[in-house]
Write a structure and sequence with these properties.
Length: about 750
């Protein structure tokens, strides 16, 4: 398939990258109309041969003429008009510099190939993972199916055994009765009947041995499946749940795991019942070396142990503790604020419905470090919950909806300081229940993932940093002393989790370019973005002392996320914001671009989250000059949106008419095309004496304009001069705005 055809089949996120390669300077329409011809040319070679580039330029115009003729035959007036316009614009741009055209096409084709390769690589990995998961599921499904079939086969054999034993008993009793009759059997007949009974007895013994062997085989199969479930599938699900809690892919449904657990439990229940039936048969008839007598105790013990084991592992936390006010920040709980948690019992048997009462309590014990002096809490509104069948999916579940944590206060005693700060203290919520069935008593318990308890919402970002770090590096829920000596994390692990933080609250994660900038920030450029590079907790999330000027990396990221959610969500989702770009990279990206090309990036020095734009101009010697404005904070963006700031932004110098230096969003998207749909719409004000609308004031509306005052030497020569009177009047009018807004600084922040 041609390259362009492959690109059209990609996911939207990759097609968006392709769209960014094309603009009005080199329209995508030309790429699509002439895709076959364009891909047939070696543009790398053309780009270094000026004469050949000229030939190819005229060839391209001829190709456009051919397209125009085709549309003329089809009487497609709109396409004819568009082709004529494309050809005219193309001639204006590249007539004098066809090599530039060849370079653009060569670059775009290479970028397309890179996008295709990246998409295919990810798709291949995804397909391999999905195939592996499907094969594993099928393998386990087959094991469960074989186990259930073996149980049914054993059930049929037990019925056959009952029939055979009844027939044996009947013939034996009949023979005994006829032996005492006067007109009984002849010796020959008697001998024949005895031989038949002996033969039947052999069949009976063989059948008993076969049934006992089948039940032993069923238990072996159940043990193997149970081992897979408890040792592999359940831990995998819990690991997926951990990833889901910190923004990763949505956690896989528990229903499949529940079906497997239930199938094993049902099979074990059937085996236990079948063993009772064998015991009844044994009581009616037995003999030396009877396999039922020899094996029933062992089989009953194994069946009971397996049944107990799977029940003890079946209580799980389906939905981890979370405050409804912060659904995207589970496991961080604030005192006196309600939180919810949901449990499920994976063995879905009707006999367990409404039989299990679950209690919740906080486990603050740290056995290895008894002197940590961590805070103690009480769980309020923790009345036991009964596990019942849910209507929508039939699962056996219980949900705590109104739990609260209250810190224990000891009167007259000051708080002892421990080695851990509040947001590094880990606690766990434990859940207990008891199951009583047919003389069987089983204690059930499970534990939540570690939680961080805060007393002020300002501690939420630091608490979330602890949750991220813990769930990246360990799966042991009882490791509450984790932050006494927190391990390092590799950049490969952290980069994925950082991207999750954005994709979980927006429609866009972080791309390789953005992650590369963050890698340089954490590891340094000398590390060359090594996936194995290690980042310590002290750099990522540890709270700094007041004497330290720096702030944790995560608090910077969290502030940017909050900025995006509050003021920049649509711009971020549409890809207008590059965001994470270093100053050096910013310069290299803008170099060679048209004057007025700008990009949006986040401030690296603002702990509260801020965004700035940087644009390029050319001096008298055609060298690039870069300008950046002081970053816009949440406070400023709450007054005027960023698109409107960009639309109305002005640079003013003495004796010059203010102008907006922002023309193209990087790489070369016209400003109004990129941001036009976000501009505030103007509304007409009513007349002051408008009796039709008495609720309106009738005043002329005002708006804020972001103006930067600079020295005239920093402006381009093409700005129009103004008279001193006009300048003074304009300066007087915009002075209040200058006090509220910012002035440009060369490569600020």
């Amino acid at each position: 398939m041609a390259q362009w055809g492959q690109l059209k089949l990609l996911d939207p996120k990759y097609q968006e990258q392709v769209q960014q390669l094309y603009d009005d300077y080199f329209p995508m329409d030309i790429r699509q109309c002439l895709s076959k011809w364009i891909e047939s040319i070696d543009w790398d070679y053309v780009a270094v041969e000026e004469s050949l580039a000229t030939v190819r330029f005229h060839d391209l115009l001829a190709q456009l003429d051919d397209q125009h003729s085709r549309f003329a035959l089809e009487k497609n007036l709109l396409r004819q008009h568009n082709i004529r316009k494309l050809k005219r614009n193309f001639q204006d741009r590249f007539q004098e510099d066809p090599v530039h055209m060849a370079m653009i096409i060569s670059r775009n084709l290479k970028e397309e190939q890179r996008i295709l390769a990246a998409a295919k690589s990810i798709e291949t990995d995804r397909e391999n993972t999905q195939t592996s998961m499907v094969l594993e599921k099928q393998k386990l499904d087959n094991k469960v199916k074989d186990m259930k079939n073996k149980v049914q086969e054993a059930d049929q054999n037990i019925k056959s055994l009952e029939y055979l034993q009844d027939e044996h008993d009947f013939k034996l009793n009949t023979l005994k009765n006829r032996e005492h009759e006067i007109n009984g059997l002849t010796p020959k007949q008697l001998e024949h009947e005895k031989l038949l009974i002996v033969e039947m007895c052999f069949k009976l013994k063989f059948k008993r041995g076969e049934v006992v062997g089948q039940l032993a085989e069923v238990l072996n199969m159940a043990e193997a499946v149970q081992s897979d479930l408890i040792s592999e599938e359940l831990p995998k699900w819990k690991k997926r749940q951990q990833s889901s809690c910190i923004g990763g892919p949505p956690n896989a449904c528990l229903d499949q795991l529940q079906n497997w657990f239930t199938a094993v439990a049902e099979s074990l229940q059937q085996v236990r019942q079948q063993l009772k039936e064998l015991q009844e048969l044994e009581q009616k008839y037995t003999y030396d070396n009877d396999p039922i007598t020899q094996q029933k105790g062992l089989l009953e013990g194994r069946a009971l142990a397996l049944f107990r084991n799977i029940l003890e592992r079946s209580l799980v936390v389906e939905r981890q503790p979370c405050m409804p006010t912060h659904p995207q920040r589970p496991l961080v709980l604030k005192t006196q604020v309600q939180f919810t948690v949901k449990l499920r019992f994976l063995v879905k048997l009707q006999e367990f419905n409404n039989k299990l009462k679950v209690k919740a309590f906080l486990n603050n014990s740290l056995p290895k470090f008894p002197n940590l002096n961590v805070r103690k809490f009480n769980i309020l509104k923790s009345n036991p919950k009964v596990m019942s069948m849910e209507q929508y999916n039939g699962s056996l579940a219980a949900e705590f909806l109104h739990l609260k944590l209250q810190e224990q206060r000891v009167p007259g005693k000051g708080k002892k300081e421990g080695p851990l700060i509040v947001t590094e203290e880990l606690h766990s919520i434990c859940f207990e229940s008891e199951l009583r069935q047919s003389g069987l008593e089983i204690k059930l318990e499970t534990i939540s993932l570690p939680i961080v308890v805060i007393s002020n919402v300002s501690q939420l970002p630091s608490g979330w940093a602890s949750i991220l770090w813990y769930n990246m590096l360990t799966s042991e829920p009882k490791n509450l002393e984790f932050f006494l000596s927190p391990p390092t994390v590799s950049w490969g692990q952290l980069s994925e989790v950082l991207s999750w933080q954005f994709s979980s609250v927006t429609k866009r994660g972080l791309n390789d370019e953005q992650l590369g900038m963050l890698a340089d920030k954490l590891l340094g450029q000398k590390a060359q973005r090594n996936p194995e590079g290690l980042i310590p907790w002290t750099m990522f999330g540890a709270v700094k002392s007041q004497s330290e000027k720096s702030f944790p990396f995560w608090l910077w990221i969290e502030a940017i996320l909050d900025l995006i959610k509050r003021h920049l969500l649509s711009l971020w989702n549409d890809g207008c914001i590059l965001g994470f770009v270093s100053k050096e990279r910013e310069k290299s990206m803008l170099t060679g671009k048209c004057p007025g090309t700008f990009l949006l990036r986040f401030s690296e020095s603002s702990i509260d989250g801020a965004i700035t734009f940087t644009w390029v101009e050319h001096d008298l010697y055609d060298k690039p000059v870069f300008h950046a404005v002081e970053p816009y904070t949440k406070k400023k963006l709450s007054v005027v949106s960023l698109p409107d700031i960009i639309r109305t932004y002005k640079v003013m110098a003495a004796e010059n008419i203010p102008e907006n230096p922002l023309r193209f969003l990087y790489p070369d998207i016209p400003k109004d095309k990129a941001f036009g749909k976000y501009y505030a719409r103007d509304t007409e004000a009513s007349e002051p004496m408008d009796v039709e609308s008495p609720t309106t004031t009738g005043y002329m509306k005002t708006g804020l304009i972001s103006v930067s005052e600079v020295h005239p030497s920093r402006l381009q020569d093409n700005m129009m001069p103004m008279s001193p009177d006009v300048f003074e009047e304009l300066k007087r009018n915009v002075a209040p705005v200058l006090q509220c807004w910012n002035s440009p600084k060369d490569m600020l922040d």
